[in-house]
Amino acid sequence: MSLIENLKKFSNEKGLLAINSGKTKLSYYELFKNIEIVSSNLSSYDENIVIILCNKKIESYILILSCILLKKTYIPISENTPKKKIEKIIKFTKSNFIVSTTTKKKFNIKNNINFVQLLKKTKRSIKINSKNNIAYIIFTSGTTGNPKGVCISYKSLEHYLRWIKNEKIFRKGEKISQFSSLSFDLSVVDFLGGLYQGCEIFPIQDQIDKFFYLDFLIKNKIEAIVITPSTSNLIIKSKNFTQKNLRYLKKIFFCGEPLLKNYLNAFFKKNKKLQIINTYGPTETTVSVSYLKLNSKNFKNYYNKYISIGRPIKNINFKILRKNKNIGELLIAGPQNFIGYLNNKKMDSLKTLIINKKKYYKTNDLFFKKNNNYYFLSRNDDQIKKNGFRIELSEINECILKIKKISFAYSIFKKDKIITFIKKDKIIDNKNILNYVKKNIEIYKVPDKLININHVPLNNNKKIDIKLLNKIANV
Q: Which of 9, 11, 241, 391 has its CA 20 to 30 A from that of 359?
C-alpha cells in the first residue's frame, strides 16, 4: 500500500490526529481533504518539478504530500537558504515553478506563487503524472561550490517506507517529534514514515523549542524521536534531563552521524526501557540502508570507536572495497539507490561502480565488518558531518576564494567546529568575509572560526601541511 493510500485509509478515522503544531491540530481526515484541494489546483500547472520553500508550518507538509499524490517531483529548500543559493538551484533545475508558504520572494520565473493560491476550493480534476519516476531532489554540498541534486525515485521512497512499516519502527497513534528541516532527507523518517503508519506528528516550528528540545518533548509527551547523534546534546545537557522527564520517551531513531557510546550510556541511565535504532545511509541511498536495534543490555556489545550501524536492510547489498585485509570503502547496491545527480552524468560515473552487473554507490566511507555487523571508521575525502548535515569543506573554500582580496582558503573540521585558514592579499575584515559567506551558502556551513595566515604551510611533498594547520587551530 502506497503512502497516499495509507493516508486515505487513516482519513476514515476522523478522530485520528495527523499533525499537531500546538495551535493547529489536523486530523488525517482534514489533512487528506486539504491534500485533495491543493492537488486539484497544483495539477493545473504543467510544470513537473515543484520547488518548495519549506518551513515547519502545516502548509509545507500539505504541499509535499500533494506533490506525492500527483507524482510530481518536489525539491524542498529551507526558506532560510540564501536567495543567491536558491537562484542558483532554480537556474540549475530549469524549473519555472516555485511555491512558498510565507511571504512571496521575487524570482525571475514563470510561476512564483504562494500556498494560499493552491488552497482555494475548486472542482478541477486531479491529473496524476504516472510517467514521472522522480519523487524528490535533495541538494547537498558540492566540491566545486555548486550544489549536487540527488534524485530519488518513487520506487526507492516506497521501498524505504515499507521497510519502516515492516520493521514496526513506529506504531499507529504514536507521538513523534518532527525535528529536522524538511530540506534534510532525515525528515522522510519522522514525517513521511510517521504518517505512513498513522502517527501523530509534532513539528518543531520555533527556535526556542529546538534549543530547549527536551522541554518540547516533555510538554507534548513525545514517545519517539528521529535525530542525529549530535542532537542528543540538546537533551542530555538540559537541566531537566531526569528519569522522570524521560518516562514518556520510548524510542530514538539515530541517523546522519557516527553514534557515540557515551550518548547511549546517558540515555539508558535515565530510561532503561528505551529502544534505540541506529541506522546509516547517504542521501543517495534514500535516507538509510542499515539498522541495529539496541537496548540497555546489548549496546555495549556493538561498540568499536563508534556504535555499529548493524546490517543492511532487506534487498540492500553491502560490499567492502578492501584497502587491506579488513578495512575498505563501503559500496551499496539495491532498490533504494538514487537515479543519479540532476544534470551531472560526470558525477554519476565518479560515484557509482558496476560489479557483476550490479550498480553500487561509492560512499567514500571506510568500514570494517565484524560478526556480520558493519562498523564505521572514517571518511575518505574532505566531506564532514556537522549536526547531521553533510558538508563538503571545499565548498566553503570555493565560496571564500570568490572574494578577490583572498588568495588562499582551507577548511578543517576539529572538535565539531569548522575552522578556515585564509591568506589575504589586501586588508579585509573577517566580519565582512563571514557576512559574504552567510549570503551565499547555508548558515550551518559558515566557519566557526577564521584564522589569518601570512603564508601557506607546505610539507615535504609540497602539499598543504594539514598536520601543521591542525596544530595551529587552537580549539
A: 391
